[in-house]
Structures are given as C-alpha cells and as structure tokens.
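Pasting as-is:
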Amino acid sequence: MYTARTMSKEKGRPNPGDTVALVSIPPGMLEGLPEEDQQAIKDAVGKPALLNQYDDDGRAEVEFKDRNGLIHFIYVRPEFIRTIS
C-alpha cells in the first residue's frame, strides 16, 4: 500500500511535517501579488518553513511566517524546496 509519506520518500521529496526551505521563487509566482505578499515570499527564501502537504498536482504546500508574524501559505513544485535540519 502506498501512502503520501512512502510515495514522497520514493521520489526523494521531503515529507509533510518536515522543515523545508524555499530555494528560489518559481517564475511568475510574484506577478499580480500585493507588494506585502511579494516581500514576504522574497524574505522566506532560505529560511525554515513547514511542509504541510502535497496537493493533487504534486505541489508542496509550504507554510511560513513573515517579519510581522503573519502566516502565509504558498504552493510550489518540489524542486523549489529542500529539507533542512
């Protein structure tokens, strides 16, 4: 039986619940977003974030806080994140 956890391990991807870092911003992600959201995403690159889950399209739901303590959620392809310890 395959679960989200075993499938992600087989593909070498981080698992839901892992601490990850956004390694770069996907092309086009910032387009049309308010300046505050753009800045929060830019500031999140390289910093610890929580991988919540993968959606049906295989994108990672990443949760992080901005400098004001507001929680943000973004969806990115797995190649844009890496596990950190």
